[in-house]
Amino acid sequence: MTSKDYYADSYAHFGIHEEMLKDEVRTLSYRNAICNNPHLFKGKTVLDVGCGTGILCMFAAKAGAKKVIGVDMSNIIVQARQIVEANGFKDTIHLVKGKLEEVELPLAPGEKVDVIISEWMGYFLLYESMLDTVLAARDKYLAPGGVMMPDTASLYLSAIEDQEYREEKIGFWDDVYGFDYSCIKEIALREPLVDTVELKSVVCDPCLVKHINLLTVTKEELTFKDSFKLNVTRNDYIHAFLGWFDVSFDACHKPVKFSTGPHSRYTHWKQTVFYVPEMMTVSAGESISGTLSCAPNAKNNRDLDIVFEYELDGSQPIKAKAEFQM
Ligand SMILES: C[S@@+](CC[C@H](N)C(=O)[O-])C[C@H]1O[C@@H](n2cnc3c(N)ncnc32)[C@H](O)[C@@H]1O
């Protein structure tokens, strides 16, 4: 393939799969959830939505699944087929190339699957996420009483002191070798930053803003406006809101969970930083209340429009709105 092909099919190159496979928090959580729960897989039919290199398919086959169907629209499925064969799973794992929404699965008429596994999460959980695809698979193929893995996802917010890095990323545009580049500053402020944040920068307790039950959530519920209240834990300054997510496999005998928060081990999702237009001066005991709106972008539904409307009730009150697109 040429670089043009790889641009059109970003999952075709092995590099992106290398990053995901080497993310041990991610991959070992899936392995533990699947391989340590053979009672959910023995003799069962399993669908892996977006199978990539086939790693989750092979975990499911090892856990005793009778039949595993992996679907992926990317050309990485060519390698997935070779990997499945090289590891002796050719008779159990059936790989289908195409968009899940469009392909025909190797199932008898009316036949459903017992388990759906998928690694669908994007930055800030929903950015470029393929959750819509997973929900379409659930509604079309999951047998009544079937299992989703993972089955819950939670989105959290906090706020951080980030003077130095904000200056480097945002303040930079005020004076570029003596020139006024502030038009770029406005764009930079609207774009969330995916990066790792040290726990010592976090100034508020975490607040759960959205809890998603994969068995019941609808596509419409992924467009939301939910309230939050961030309790300030020390006297400091706030430059940004911080977002991350946790996922959990509650159907397991012993629930398996992982977090992508600043208190947890590194994952390739890092955290998401939303710089606010005006710094807030806060004291311990104060709080920031507000709403977080999240909606797929009208032009590109894999992009997200995110709006924070918030109020600081402190000695230096602030009422503001910050809009982002990612
Ligand atoms: C985050 S990767 C996960 C790959 C693999 N399951 C793993 O855990 O290493 C998501 C995969 O889903 C595929 N994908 C995304 N949307 C899809 C769709 N609508 N139909 C089929 N595959 C899709 C991508 O091509 C990509 O390989």
UniProtKB/TrEMBL annotation:
GO cellular component terms, A-Z: nucleus
Pfam families, per database record: Methyltransf_25 (PF13649), PRMT_C (PF22528)
KW Transferase (keyword) present: yes
Residues annotated as domain Methyltransferase: 46-146
BP terms from Gene Ontology: methylation
Keyword line: Methyltransferase, S-adenosyl-L-methionine, Transferase
Annotated catalysed reactions: L-arginyl-[protein] + S-adenosyl-L-methionine = N(omega)-methyl-L-arginyl-[protein] + S-adenosyl-L-homocysteine + H(+)
Domain Protein arginine N-methyltransferase span(s) in chain numbering: 151-314
EC number(s) recorded for this UniProt protein: 2.1.1.319
Keyword Methyltransferase: yes
Enzyme class: transferase
Protein name in the entry: type I protein arginine methyltransferase
Organism listed in the record: Meira miltonrushii
